[in-house]
Write a structure and sequence with these properties.
Mth169, Chain: A, 3-stranded antiparallel sheet, alpha+beta, 2 helices, elongated
Length: 85
């Protein structure tokens, strides 16, 4: 078994209202950063896992994202798999 780290980013889809992003945008504007037109707030998750290969690690991460980590109705996800030496 090889060790991998998965760096996962989960973001609300564009069509969904992002109240946290709106609050961040307003807060930045209140700080005088009026150049910020929009902020979107998501999640970053790091998983350490073991798998026989990088392809098997991707399968495990896909399963984790689709069944637990992301709400596929409201969120999209992307990830990067890094091999650990």
């Amino acid at each position: 078994m090889k060790k991998f780290i998965a760096e996962i980013d989960i973001m609300p889809i564009r069509e969904i209202l992002d109240p946290q992003g709106k609050a961040v945008t307003l807060g930045l504007n209140n700080l005088g950063l009026n150049e910020v037109a929009e902020a979107r707030v998501g999640k970053h998750i790091t998983l350490q896992l073991e798998a026989e290969s990088e392809d098997k690690a991707k399968e495990k991460v896909e399963t984790a994202c689709q069944k637990l980590l992301a709400n596929l109705i409201m969120e999209k996800y992307s990830y990067e798999i890094l091999a650990v030496e």
